[in-house]
Design a protein that fits this description.
Layout (H helix, E strand, L loop, with lengths): L19 E2 L5 E2 L8 H14 L5 E4 L6 H10 L8 E5 L5 H9 L16 H4 L4 E5 L6 H13 L1 E2 L8 E2 L3 E6 L3 H6 L5 H7 L2 E4 L10 H12 L6 E2 L3 H7 L5 H15 L4 E2 L24 H15 L10 H5 L3 H10 L4 H5 L8
Parallel strand pairs: 3-8, 3-9, 4-5, 5-8, 10-11
Antiparallel strand pairs: 1-2, 6-7
Helix pairs in contact: 1-2, 8-10
Length: about 350
């Protein structure tokens, strides 16, 4: 994945370029690697929403590149000359998130020795990226909802509201529908954030992009020119399940380069327990939750049916479920239409 570059107020983004056409005619974005049909769908949605001021919700597993997409949206938006402010909602203690987001006045609590400007004020006229939004504490969700609805915030200890003009891009690897049912995420906040959802495909569903990603990471980390993989190694990489997605592949290539001598990489430290069709794997296979197994199976059946849910040969019939029951499970598991129609159908055995 490309390194993030700081975006300063009043300055143009140095590496801002419009999407390009690759040699195959596929759309590409600078810094984002992938030309598969599922990534083309992501680029198409990105192009549609970037020029607006709409709120975007990025969904997808960890390591799929949500931060890269958020940065691309900002860089191709009318706000590109203002700040892109990142905040990881899962990385901060609950008692500090409010101060980080909205700021505080001097003396408003123990340790508040100076006034602090919050991220929303800092991002005024620009964009704020709320990563891991699904991990935000419920009491903070109420205040974030007010900031989105009223377009104003209030510092801790402040006496007057402060108007803000901020574009919000939120991201999560959690199933927000499930979190809402469990009372861990507010439904009104979800609908406020879910204006324009973009679901990023996991690497196992776009394995045709692995050669491009490997070439990118080899160029990035190689200590010698012409560093390459030996014949057969790429095939092994494409057999892996990659639960850590692009980030896991990136780290594996970097580790392989560090362990290798010479420019030809003959062996990579494959995650054996996650490799399919591997006779040398000795570790136990990855154990999925029942929810993950159910989600994968329903997706598989929907793709086999071409997205058809009811009627003869539809997914409900094949699964032995009533149509309303299947629709409920699709919503509960957070299955998006894009995941059914833009990902290449798995081949039946």
């Amino acid at each position: 994945m490309a390194k993030r570059q700081p975006v300063k107020p009043g300055h143009s983004v140095d590496d801002l370029h419009p999407p390009e056409k690759g040699s195959t005619g596929a759309i590409t974005y600078p810094g984002i690697i992938g030309a598969s049909p599922s990534m083309q769908q992501v680029y198409s949605l990105l192009s549609q929403v970037a020029a607006s001021h709409s709120t975007v919700l990025l969904l997808g597993e960890t390591g799929t590149g949500k931060e890269l997409i958020a940065r691309a949206i900002h860089q191709h938006s009318p706000r590109r000359n203002k700040m892109l402010v990142n905040i990881n909602c899962a990385a901060l203690p609950a008692n500090l998130i409010e101060s980080e987001l909205f700021g505080h006045e001097k003396g408003s609590f123990t340790g508040a020795i100076d006034r602090r400007i919050g991220k929303f004020e800092l991002a005024n006229l620009g964009t704020i990226f709320l990563d891991e939004i699904g991990d935000m504490p419920p009491d903070l969700q109420v205040k974030l909802l007010r900031a989105l609805q009223e377009k104003e915030i209030e510092r801790i200890g402040g006496k007057a509201p402060i108007r803000t003009d901020v574009r919000v891009i939120a991201a999560t690897n959690r199933n927000l529908h499930h979190a809402i049912e469990q009372g861990r995420f507010r439904s009104d906040l979800f609908y406020r954030l879910n204006v324009f959802p973009i679901t990023l495909p996991p690497l196992r569903e776009r394995k045709e992009d692995i050669p491009l990603l490997v070439e990118h990471f080899l160029t990035r980390f190689a200590r010698q020119e012409n560093t390459r993989l030996a014949a057969g190694v790429l095939d092994q990489l494409q057999q892996c399940h990659w639960p850590g997605n692009v980030r896991e592949l990136e780290h594996l290539i970097e580790r392989s380069i560090l362990l290798n001598e010479g420019s030809l990489i003959k062996k990579v430290p494959l995650p054996g327990s996650r490799s399919r069709n591997s006779s040398t794997a000795t570790a136990e296979p990855v154990i999925k939750t029942l929810e993950e197994v159910e989600r994968d199976h329903i997706l598989y059946v929907l793709r086999r049916c071409g997205g058809k849910i009811f009627g003869a040969g539809g997914a409900a019939e094949l699964l032995g479920l009533h149509v309303s029951t299947l629709n409920h499970r699709i919503r509960k598991l957070g299955i998006q239409k894009e995941q059914v129609f833009t990902v290449k159908k798995e081949q039946t055995k």
